Amino acid sequence: LSPNSDGRLIRLNVPPLSTERRKQLVSRVKEFAEESRISIRNIRRDANKHADQSQKDKILSEDDCETCKESTQELTKKYEGKVNTLASTKENEIMNE
Predict the structure, then answer these.
(1) What is the C-alpha to C-alpha distance for residues 35 and 27, in angstroms, rounded to an integer?
(2) Sign of the torsion angle spanned by Cα atoms 82, 97, 19, 22
C-alpha cells in the first residue's frame, strides 16, 4: 500500500487479493466458525449441568429437567446452523470477489 496525497485527501490503492491470500482468509473463517461452535457446545454443557443440579436440589422435576435439556439442544442446533450458514456465505464471498 502506498498512500497518495493531493493536499486534501489521502488515497490508498489496495491491490486485489491473490488466490493464496483468499485461501488463508477462508481458513481463518473456518477457525472462527469452529471456535463459535465450541463455545455454543460449552454453553449447552453448562446449561445441562445446571439443569441436573436443579433436579438434584429438587427445584426441577425429572420431566422439567428433560424438557430443559431438549430445549437447550434445539437452541444449540439452531445457533450452530446459523454459524454454519454465515461461515459458508463468507467463504463464498471471499472466494468469488
Answers:
(1) 12
(2) negative
Q: What is the pLDDT of residues 60-80, one digit of tens each?
A: 999 999 999 999 999 999 999
| Sole residue written with cell 461452535 | 37
Distances (CA, A) of 31 to 3, 66, 68, 83, 87: 32, 32, 30, 12, 10
Report residue 19: phi and psi, to 5°.
-60, -40
For 24-71, how does the pLDDT look when each residue is reduced to its tens digit (9 = 90+)?
999 999 999 999 999 999 999 999 999 999 999 999 999 999 999 999
Whole-structure pTM value: 0.81
